[in-house]
Amino acid sequence: MSTLADVSPSLAAALGVEGFTDTLGIGGGVGGGIRGVALLLVDGMGADLVAEHADHAPALAELAARGRTLDAGFPSTTAVSVTSLGTGLPAGGHGIVGYSMAVPPLDHPDAPADVVLNTLRWCAHGSTDPVDLRRELPPEQVQPVPTVLQRAARAGVTVTTVAPEIQRRSGLTRAALRGCRFRGVTALGDLGAAVVEALGEATADEPAFCYAYHGDLDMIGHAHGPGSLPWRLQLGVVDRLVAQVAEDLPPDTVLAVVADHGMVATDAGWRIDLDTTPALLRGVRRLAGEARVRHVFAADGALEDVVAAWRGELGDAARVRTRDEAIADGWFGAEVTDAARGRIGDVVAAAEGNWTLVRSRIEPMETALVGHHGSFTDAEQHVPLLLAHG
After folding, report:
1. DSSP for 297-313, written as a single string
2. Residue 351 forms beta bridges with which residues?
3. Is the separation of the CB atoms in 232 and 53 below 8 Å?
4. Which InterPro entries does the annotation name (predicted)?
5. pLDDT band (50, 70, 90) for residue 56
6. Most buried residue among 61, 169, 183, 343 by CB atoms closer than 10 A?
7. Confidence of residue 105 (pLDDT cuts 50, 70, 90)
8. From CA 136, how far away is CA 239, in angstroms rounded?
9. Domain containing 242 — which CATH number?
């Protein structure tokens, strides 16, 4: 199945940017050649959830009827997926391998010796007083691959990112989406308007590529659960946004709506608390990831015991693989760079069903969430690719 890593390259190819292939068939809009594309990422809008609640999202359902489903890629979490959209590569290629990940020392004078980096906030993970690490861990070094947006801009495309103002100079924006002008927005109204305006600037000689992000559906899914009444009402709001933008598309432009992941609901009965399970901490020097997928780093000489303990304790609650096994099984993509390999845990545990591998002491906020994502279930992996042509 195609993945999120195929989306931006296909959009760039549809604009005629050399070096990219339209593997998803984006081209072919009404009126001939495409002069503008908009990629709208709706955080947390899993394809299975949209299908289940189509009555709350008639416009999305109509587009889905002629759209297709993609795999998010692994881990199915925002920072990884946004970077895959930005670079056209899976996690093993771009090196952002989790919501939090261990970053070995960089060739940078201020780089810390070894840190678990929260890739959304670009700070030390689990810190009660987060410290900005953009200077010590420059995003352009942590993720050095040129983005699709950079390559499109160099080819003469006018490239715009439309997102909340707080993301303007964030670590993740610099790592995953660098290479374009940034338009900060505050709500759905100016987000939709900014997308339409960016596409309206497109010409045959100077095509336009607009990336836009909306995160409220994901936040509500985490807090109240995917499919809950608040979630369904927010889905309806997103539906109206997409319908309005699709209606206002300039001629010869394309709107592509995707999600970064889906979501599963869980509760205390499905939690395994790593912080209160000594057998799962014995021989472990560091933990990264999130509740649905954990990177486990073993102390020297303890790997075999750690693997045995995690497989024995978790049983059917998670797939447990060594780093080499996970890479060989293609979890992080066909190719894994040396940098990415060093950030993947010695052991990787991907939760099955509705299980979560929480850390009540280190991650109290995340532990309390209802909705989670990151692993391999269809509910987490299946994301929509919805296309509307102007």
Report:
1. EEPTT-HHHHHHHHHHH
2. 318
3. yes
4. Alkaline_phosphatase_core_sf, Phosphodiest/P_Trfase
5. very high
6. 343
7. low
8. 41
9. 3.40.720.10
How many residues in the chain? Answer: 390
**Has residue 35 got a pLDDT over 80?**
yes
Extract the tokens encoding 2.
């195609």
With H, G, I as helix, E, B as strand and everything else as coil, classify residue 350.
strand
Percent of residues, the chain, with pLDDT higher than 90 = 89
Q: What is the mean pLDDT of the chain?
A: 94
Instruction: Name the one residue in this structure whose structure tokens are 């497989």.
Output: 311
* Contact (Cβ atoms closer than 8 angstroms) between residue 35 and residue 203: yes
- Interatomic CA distance for residues 150 and 207, integer angstroms: 14
pLDDT band per the 50, 70, 90 thresholds, residue 111:
low
- d(CA 53, CA 204) in angstroms, rounded, equals 39
Answer whether 236's CB lies under 8 Å from 286's CB.
no
Three-state SS at 37: strand
CA-CA distance, 332 to 254, in Å (whole number)? 30
CB atoms within 10 A of CB 112: 14
Q: Tell me the mean pLDDT in the region 179-203.
A: 95
> What pLDDT was estimated at residue 30?
37
Q: Are residues 299 and 225 in the same domain?
A: no
Rg for the chain, CA atoms, rounded: 20
Angle at 128 between CA 291 and CA 76, to 5 degrees: 25
When mean pLDDT is compared across 73-87, 103-117, 168-182, 184-198, the lowest value belongs to 103-117
Predicted pLDDT at 249 = 96
Coil, strand or helix at 321: strand
Whether 109 is covered by a domain: the verdict is no
Q: Taking the CB of residue 317, how many other CB atoms lie within 10 A of it?
A: 17
Is 76 within the bounds of a domain? yes
